[in-house]
Amino acid sequence: MGSFIIQRFNFSSNFLFLFLIVSQSFVLQTIAIKNNNPTAYEVLKDFDFPIGLLPKGVTGYDFDSSSGKFSAFLNGSCSFSLERSYRLNYKNTIKGYLSKGKISSLEGVTVKLWFMWVNIVEVSRRGDDLEFSVGIAGAGFPVHNFEECPQCGCGVNCNANINHQQQVRKFGENPFVSSF
Hints:
This protein is an alpha+beta fold. The protein has helices at about 1-35, 40-45, 160-175; strands at about 60-65, 70-75, 80, 85-100, 100-115, 115-120, 120-125, 130-135, 140.
């Protein structure tokens, strides 16, 4: 009877050992599958672009590696100002074709120039600069300006904008300040 208990124990411990190995292998495979699915921001980096070309909050994307066709999806439209002079608007779907250092046939991103909105149709990387084209005209900016993803509504310096707005509001609410 003593050998039966030992054999049963060996079977149980072997089963447990096998179960642990199989489950650990499954977990590692699951992690590997997730790591093979990069984010939209990581896809941009793979093509030599900074992540800040897309705003925070991309909910998903499609990418065809054979054609370079890329689409990124947001919960809704998104707008913000950059450098207090450029107003950008992203539609809920942004489309284009990615190649190393170039996004062409871009759709879904507009910039306000003076009194009108124009489509940004191409973005090219030239060394440490990004060139944005609206067709007949373009502008260049340093890549480091796009290291952070802008946030819808307030851009990159959201905390600074909130603090500045609170200071202005507090100044305007002070009953001891008058303009004589």
